[in-house]
Amino acid sequence: MIVPKRHFRWTLLAITMLSMGAQRFRAMADERPNIVVMVADDMNFDDCGTYGHPSIRTPNIDRLASEGLQFECAYLTASSCSPSRASILTGRYPHNTGAEQLHWPIPEGTRTLAAVLGAEGYYTVSAGKWHLGDAVRSDFNKIYEASTAGFVLPSGEDGQKGRMVARQPSGCEDWLAALQGCPEDQPFFAWLAALDPHREYNPGALDPPHSLSDVIVPPYLPDTPDVREDLRLYYDEIGRLDQYVGQVIDELDAMGRADNTLILFISDNGRPFPRDKTTLYDGGIRTPWIVRWPNVVKPGIVTPSLVSSVDIAPTLMELAGISKPVLASFGSEGQSFGKVLKDPTAAHRRYAFAEDHWHDYEDHARCVVTSRYKLIRNDYPDLPSTPSADAGRGLAWQAMLRLNASGELSDAQEACFKTPRSRWELYDLKRDPSELHNRVNDLAYSKVKNELIAALAEWTKSTKDYIPSQRTPDEFDRVTGEPDHSVRKRPRPSKKEMFGTNSRY
User: Fold this and answer.
1) Sequential DSSP letters for 307-350
2) 381-395 pLDDT per residue, tens
3) In angstroms, how far is CA 496 from the centroid of its own chain?
């Protein structure tokens, strides 16, 4: 059949317009940034070169900082793995997620950052540690889940030392596959969650390994050969993680998508050692926080702006072009730090807040922190600050148990054993970065104390925070570390299954 010229012209015009429309759509999609969030598992904020550690080998994390923006005052909302992750993805403080205790899943019906981005045309992928529960799996187009079998409990028998038996000990082994599976014509959100440097530790994580002389022992840990060896093995897992960070950077370059990809590198909580993880000291809640985005962020800059992990979801949604009505309906309790990415001198927040909840052992505490001061409120001061069960199995804690029994620990090193604890703790982070000297009764700090008490009270009211009406039983003996199987169930029941609600109890 012969098509008349006028029909042919109209057909050609229609095809051309459709093609231009598709091109414009792809261009619009390309203008939205790809987003990669890399989450270390139990890494202290200053345990890498760019944050000042002279010995831990982290050339790729350091490269991220040299090519991006490094935040000096960055805090998590929780000092525990799954509560911290739930807070990041929901943009809510832990007590409002329904997942504030370790292993509690994010409840059914909860909207996450991934779900919102997916609904707005992003391809969403998770690779590595999951630890979020089953209700939000559908928020991701693809999940590469790493087994956590190797550190849930020791795998040794008859009292033998447990070993990491996970098929993917780093948790980062599928990171490249996750990136390579992202469609070329669609922006993507990649949640890359490591197992490193979570315990259990075994030799061989890094070649060549760090040496005992590389180790810097914090003053609240005793400087013994066992403590140094424990820290050395932890350093090696950071080094292994760093190698995967480098692979991600290189893969984005190879894909030709690096310039418009925002990379955020953080940890979920601090190092898994006594007086660090599961506490509200900087060793528990302060995090490395690096943003690399070549199209927008100027390289090699350090910002003093105070940020909180509750700010991550609203920031990434804003940068992805999510509309204000959708942002409002998401209901984040954080605030976007997008302006800091363009102006690192911009002020962001006066206060950051963090929470301590049950993690193997019962505890409940809150803190408020500024760029210089921190106030901690201990709600269960009758309980000692027992480290997490995985830290309790480590060489450092076992050494501390022996030294405590023989009276050889310093006052700072005895902190995990002492009861009752002070109800309030106040620290000058500039003069006392290890938080060894409680200034709550120092008259010179009375103005600061009163300001922070008022700020914490206002936050408690505005976020509807509360002290639970009942305590959660410990799953392990605080001295021997042995599990209490009358309490410990796996999978752990959800908050609703335990207390009949996902809210106040």
Assistant:
1) EEGGGHHHHHHHHTT--HHHHHHHT-SS---HHHHH-TT----S
2) 999 999 999 999 999
3) 24
Residue 289: phi and psi, rounded to 5, are -150, 105
List every span in the chain annotated with CATH 3.30.1120.
365-488
pLDDT value of residue 5 = 46
List every span in the chain annotated with CATH 3.40.720.10: 32-154+163-349
For strand 142-145 and strand 290-292, is the pairing parallel, antiparallel, or unpaired? Answer: unpaired
Give the rounded distance of the alpha carbon of 477 from its chain centre.
27
Phi, psi of 36 (to 5 degrees): -125, 120
Which of 249, 277, 312 lies closest to 47 in space, CA to CA?
277
Second CATH level (architecture) for the domain 32-154+163-349: 3-Layer(aba) Sandwich (3.40)
The CATH number fitting domain 365-488, selected from 1.10.357, 3.30.1120, 2.60.40, 3.30.70: 3.30.1120
Tens-digit pLDDT profile for residues 321-331:
999 999 999 99
Residue 494 has pLDDT above 70, yes or no: yes
SS3 89: helix
Q: Cβ distance 228 to 214 under 8 Å? A: no
Residue range 350-360, pLDDT digits in tens: 999 999 999 99
Tokens 């408690």 identify what position?
460
- In the structure encoding, which two tokens stand for residue 136, read together? 């939000």
Q: What's the chain's average pLDDT?
A: 93
Query: What is residue 421's DSSP assignment?
Result: P
Looking at residue 264, what DSSP letter applies?
A: E
Q: How far apart are CA 286 and CA 266, in angstroms?
A: 10
**Which residue pairs, CB below 8 angstroms and at least 24 apart, start in 61-65?**
61/242, 61/245, 61/265, 61/288, 61/290, 63/246, 63/249, 64/245, 64/249, 64/263, 64/265, 64/290, 64/292, 65/290, 65/300
Q: Beta-carbon neighbour count of residue 14 at 10 Å?
A: 10
Q: How many helices (H) and strands (E) are present in the chain, helices listed first?
A: 15, 12
